[in-house]
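Per reviewer request, we include the raw input and output of the structure prediction for the construct analysed in the revised manuscript.
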Amino acid sequence: MTRTRGVFLAAPLALLPMSAGTEEDLQSLLDKAGAYVVGYEEGFSAVVAEEDYMQYVLRDQGSMPVASRSLHSDVLFAPIGGALKWILFRDVYEVDGKAVRDREARLEKLWLESRGSAIEQCRALLQESSRYNLGRTVRNFNIPTIPLLFLHPDNRDRFEFEYGGRKKVEGRRCGVVDYREVSRPTLIREQSQDVFTRGRLYVDENDGAILKTELAFDSRSKEGRVRVWVIYRWVEELGMWLPHEMKESYESTRPVQERHRLPGSEHVQRDSEFINCTAEYKNYRSFKVQTEERYRLPE
């Protein structure tokens, strides 16, 4: 098995056709995707959109939901520096059809008024918005663009990569790249603990554009698993591939408290919870362009 810097080569996935130059194909994909992400970082500075987010809580995977919630939010993708490069700030304005605040473009307004303190204030809004999530799993890391950063040249040595063949996405020929995080501290942390991500990226063979991502990790505190899938669509107005749909699956288990155990039971009862979510993104616009040309603060 061949191993190079940041690259881990293994047998291809069974159903994906392979070309002869596996190592060369992988290295080419990583180089193109790295350059693409660097350019994406510049173009993705201060982009705003609307997010429609549905959540379902199930007691058994595949069963009918026992609870559901609909959230509508303004979201701001903005640069923060460091290993994560950018982040999504989410500001919920409607829950299950009922307004929870006035729609006053708070994220954009904060970014305009005080760039120095805007990040901390936006983080506070993100934390506030996360309280509307259903279920036990605390999640403010559900940012659709995070897997793109795994291919950034600054982060690539944190991962091992495998070439997984080819597949068409959005009618474009993509190389499949499987990844596994191997370095500490990890990019995503859970209650100050490392969580090692793994997953799959679909990279356009021509220009390195990333059109689909899959991310997974095991939750140590919740004794469960997290899975996130994202599909990208071309947004003509901004000339970029941007997140169109994000699907999430959260599974957690915990021991049932002693007083709730069945009499005479020798085994620890476990309470399982499954959360399935779908987020859709629309009405993208460049905050930079709007502040210069069209954007007006509300009176």
